[in-house]
Amino acid sequence: MQGDKVALVTGSSSGIGFETSLTLARAGFNTYASMRNSEKSKNITEIAKKEKLPLQVVQLDVNNDGSVKDAIVKILKADQRIDVLINNAGYGLFGSVEDTSIEEIKAQFETNFFGVVRVTQQVLPLMRRQNSGTIVNVSSVGGRIGLPALSAYHSTKFALEGLS
Question: What is the full per-residue pLDDT of the chain (164 aa) written as tens digits?
């Protein structure tokens, strides 16, 4: 499939990542719908099969260097390029600062912020060599406006806004 546009979407087991993966595949992109737990791939796989979409599920845990590298290598073996990266993987942690452990806050940052950095650091040099590519970091209104009981989540999204 060399020559076709290739997209990688993190956090594709549900929500924005799920819908974005399907939208890109329907638009003709060779789409890699990545997710930490590939056991959650049944729905997207069935839709892709039914609609004959160019979509594959790839296991990718944004919190794990080896997992990220393995997924990128797999994509490059098959398609030799990545044209679009959608950094979508993330979750919301609900709780006041005083009731949230430092470990929970670190885990929130590991996924929502450092996961983006980790995947981008693997893909960006490739895009530079290709002389093309688009990276979309999925943030939130929570990256601009804070609400009570979501301080850890908002902190990660403010950091993501700064990185982007």
Answer: 445 899 999 999 999 999 999 999 999 999 999 999 999 999 999 999 999 999 999 999 999 999 999 999 999 999 999 999 999 999 999 999 999 999 999 999 999 999 999 999 999 999 999 999 999 999 987 777 888 889 999 999 999 999 99
Q: Which of 153, 154, 156, 159 is catalytic?
A: 153
CATH top-level class for 6-92+116-141?
Answer: alpha beta
Question: Is there a contact between 4 and 30 (Cβ–Cβ < 8 Å)?
Answer: yes
For residues 32 and 1, the answer to whether their CB atoms sit within 8 Å is no
Active site residue 153: yes
User: Is the pTM here over 0.85, yes or no?
Assistant: yes
Q: What CA–CA distance (Å, rounded) separates 48 from 25? A: 8
Pairing of strands 6-9, 55-59: unpaired
Give φ, ψ of 137 to 5 degrees: -100, 115
